[in-house]
Design brief:
about 20% strand
Length: about 80
């Protein structure tokens, strides 16, 4: 992993970006194929900032479980 030096103002801007992206997960009521694709794009952004994001999908392409920095989240329609 590459260490990137940034100034404090940029760091806070990046932190707000991460926070806004994580807030999106709380507002998603259902997970479908398009949501999974959006999450994949968000994952790429977050991993550059040191946030680990994992998700487990169903065979139908729906998101079943989501883990952010080891904390587990479940889709509302998952059992």
């Amino acid at each position: 992993m590459k260490l990137i030096k940034i100034d404090s103002q940029e760091w806070y801007a990046q932190l707000e970006l991460v926070k806004s992206k994580l807030d999106r997960f709380r507002r998603i009521d259902f997970m479908d194929f398009f949501a999974v694709k959006a999450i994949y794009g968000i994952r790429c952004d977050l991993e550059r900032l040191g946030v680990t994001l994992e998700y487990i999908g169903t065979d139908e392409g729906e998101l079943e479980r989501l883990r952010i920095n080891g904390c587990r989240f479940r889709a509302k329609n998952a059992l």
